[in-house]
Automatic annotation (TrEMBL):
Metalloprotease TldD/E N-terminal domain residues: 23-85
Annotated ranges, domain Metalloprotease TldD/E central: 112-219
InterPro entries: Metalloprtase-TldD/E_C, Metalloprtase-TldD/E_cen_dom, Metalloprtase-TldD/E_N, Peptidase_U62_metallo, TldD, TldD/PmbA_N, TldD/PmbA_sf
Superkingdom of origin organism: Bacteria
Any GO BP annotation: proteolysis
Biological source species: Neobacillus piezotolerans
One GO CC term, this protein: cytosol
Keywords assigned: Hydrolase, Metalloprotease, Protease
Pfam families recorded: PmbA_TldD_1st, PmbA_TldD_2nd, PmbA_TldD_3rd
Protein name: TldD/PmbA family protein
Residue ranges annotated for the Metalloprotease TldD/E C-terminal domain, each copy included: 226-458
A GO molecular-function annotation: metallopeptidase activity
Family per record: Belongs to the peptidase U62 family.
C-alpha cells in the first residue's frame, strides 16, 4: 500500500521531538449498500475510502493525526504536526521491521466485489417476497444489503509490520405488521466476517420468517406489567445487556481511568460460579471476529470472568501503559479517522448445563425476553435501561401471552450477580457498537439465562 522506505521515514518523523513510540495505520476500504423497499431497489451505493492515521506516544501522552494525502510529503507533514505536541529529550529509535506473514483465520470464498449488483438485488427481492408473504398483516418490508472489504497496513516503531484484509457481509430485514390503527415492528440483521458466500449459505427463510413473526406476534400483545420479576433472557441478541452493562466496564478505556465498577478487582468474585464471560475474536467467520486488531496484535480468546471470578480486561497498547499490562489484542477503531482503543469483538456468556426447557419449567412466574431492543447504559455505574423487542409472560412454568411495552431496568454488575440458571444453547447476534474509537462490528451472545429478579417497566401496574 506504501513502500517500507516511506513508512520508515514517516515513523521516524513522528519521533523527532522526543516520542517513544510511533505508529502508522493505512486503510483502503470498499463498501456496497443496497436498500429494497416496497418491492423496489431504492438505493444502490458503492464507495471507496482511503486514508492514513499516525500516532505518537510519549509516556502517558498520546497524539493522533490522520490524512487522506498519501504522498510522501503529505504524510511527513502529518507526522511532523503530530510530533509538535510531543516534547522530550531523546527520541526513540526505530526497530527493524519484522514482517508478519498473511494471517487469516477467517477464510473468504467469494469476494463481494466480484459479484454483480443484479445478483445481490435478486437476493433482496427473494428476502422481500418471503417476508411480505408471511402473513396478510405485513404491510411494509425493508431489506438492506451491506458488504465491505477493508485492507489495512499497520507498522510501528517497535518493528511491527503487518497487513490484513477484512471482508464482512450483512443483511437487515425489517417488517411492519398493521391491524387497524395498530402498527408493530419486527427486525433481524444477521452478519458474518465472510464474503458473498454468507448470503448463498444463509437460511433466508428463517430470518425473514422471524422478522415477520415478531411483528405479527406483537399485534396480539397485552400491556406488560410493572414490578420486580424473575426474567428469562433468550439466547443470541439477549447478550446485548451484558455487552453494554458489563462488557464496556471491562474495557481498559474505562478501567485504566478507574471509571469502571470492575477496576482493580481482578481475582474477586463478581458473578455466580455458573457464569463465565468471554471475548473471543478468533471465532471463525463470526461478525465481530478479527485476524489482527487495529494495532497489529493477533486476535485471541480473552477470558474475562471464569466461574464467577474476574480474570482480566480488554486492553489496547496505550491503556496498557497506564495499567502496566500487556495488550490483549483488543485495540480497535472504525477507520483511519479514529485512534484505536480497547473494544470488544465477540463477547458472550459461556454455555451452562440447563436446557431452555428446564429454565422455563422452573420459573413459576415472570417475564420471558425473547429479543432485546435498544437501550441506554451509564458505563461508569453499569446502570441500564433496555427495551424488549419481543416479550412473553411466564405462568406456571409455561409461556403465556405476548407482552408489549416491556423495559428492563437495572445495574449490570448486580444483574450479573443474580443470574441463577444458564442454558446450554449458546448463540451469537450481530450488531454495531459505538464508543470513542467509532462504530465497529461486534457479536453479542449468550445461552438462555435466568435472572432471579429485574425491575420491569411496563405500561400498567399489577
Amino acid at each position: 500500500m506504501l513502500s517500507k522506505h516511506v513508512i520508515e521515514d514517516v515513523l521516524a518523523a513522528a519521533l523527532t521531538t522526543g516520542g517513544d513510540f510511533s505508529e502508522i495505520f493505512i486503510e483502503d476500504r470498499f463498501t456496497n449498500n443496497l436498500t429494497l423497499q416496497s418491492g423496489k431497489i431504492e438505493t444502490a451505493l458503492s464507495g471507496r475510502d482511503f486514508g492514513v492515521g499516525i500516532r505518537v506516544f510519549k509516556g502517558l501522552r498520546s497524539i493522533y493525526a490522520y490524512t487522506t494525502d498519501s504522498s510522501r510529503e503529505g504524510l511527513l507533514k502529518a507526522a511532523a504536526n503530530a510530533a509538535q505536541a510531543i516534547k522530550g529529550e531523546t527520541a526513540a529509535r526505530l526497530a527493524p521491521f519484522v514482517s508478519q506473514a498473511a494471517y487469516s483465520i477467517h477464510p473468504i470464498q467469494i469476494m463481494p466485489r466480484d459479484v454483480g449488483k443484479s445478483r445481490k438485488a435478486e437476493m433482496l427481492h427473494n428476502a422481500f417476497g418471503m417476508t411480505k408473504n408471511y402473513h396478510s398483516s405485513i404491510s411494509q418490508v425493508t431489506v438492506r444489503y451491506m458488504d465491505e472489504e477493508q485492507n489495512v497496513l499497520i507498522a510501528n516503531s517497535e518493528g511491527t509490520f503487518t497487513e490484513d484484509k477484512r471482508v464482512r457481509s450483512r443483511l437487515a430485514i425489517q417488517a411492519v405488521a398493521v391491524r387497524g390503527n395498530q402498527m408493530e415492528l419486527g427486525f433481524y440483521g444477521p452478519g458474518a466476517h465472510q464474503g458473498f458466500e454468507f448470503f448463498e449459505n444463509l437460511n433466508l427463510g428463517h430470518y425473514t420468517s422471524e422478522a415477520a413473526r415478531i411483528a405479527v406476534t406483537k399485534l396480539d400483545a397485552i400491556p406488560c406489567p410493572s414490578g420486580k420479576f424473575p426474567v428469562i433472557i433468550d439466547n443470541e441478541f439477549g447478550g446485548v445487556i451484558f455487552h453494554e452493562a458489563c462488557g464496556h466496564g471491562l474495557e481498559a478505556t474505562a478501567v485504566a481511568k478507574d471509571t469502571s465498577v470492575f477496576a482493580n478487582r481482578i481475582g474477586e468474585r463478581v458473578a455466580p460460579e455458573i457464569v463465565s464471560y468471554i471475548d473471543d475474536g478468533t471465532l471463525q467467520n463470526e461478525w465481530g471476529s478479527i485476524n489482527i486488531d487495529d494495532e497489529g496484535e493477533k486476535a485471541r480468546k480473552n477470558i474475562l470472568i471464569e466461574n464467577g471470578i474476574l480474570k482480566g480486561y480488554l486492553i489496547d497498547k496505550f491503556n496498557g501503559r497506564r495499567m502496566g499490562m500487556a495488550s490483549t489484542g483488543s485495540g480497535r477503531r472504525e477507520s483511519f479517522r479514529f485512534a484505536p482503543t480497547s473494544r470488544m469483538t465477540n463477547t458472550y456468556i459461556a454455555p451452562g448445563n440447563s436446557s431452555p426447557e428446564e429454565i422455563l419449567s422452573n420459573t413459576e412466574h415472570g417475564i420471558y425476553a425473547k429479543y432485546m431492543g435498544g437501550g441506554q447504559v451509564n458505563p461508569a455505574t453499569g446502570d441500564y435501561n433496555f427495551a424488549v423487542l419481543e416479550a412473553f409472560e411466564v405462568k406456571n412454568g409455561k409461556l403465556g401471552r405476548p407482552l408489549k411495552g416491556a423495559t428492563l431496568i437495572g445495574n449490570g454488575p448486580k444483574t450479573l450477580q443474580m443470574v441463577d440458571m444458564v442454558g446450554n444453547n449458546l448463540s451469537h447476534g450481530a450488531g454495531m457498537c459505538g464508543s470513542q474509537s467509532g462504530s465497529i462490528p461486534v457479536n453479542v451472545g449468550q445461552p438462555t439465562i435466568r435472572v432471579s429478579e429485574i425491575t420491569v417497566g411496563g405500561t400498567k401496574g399489577e
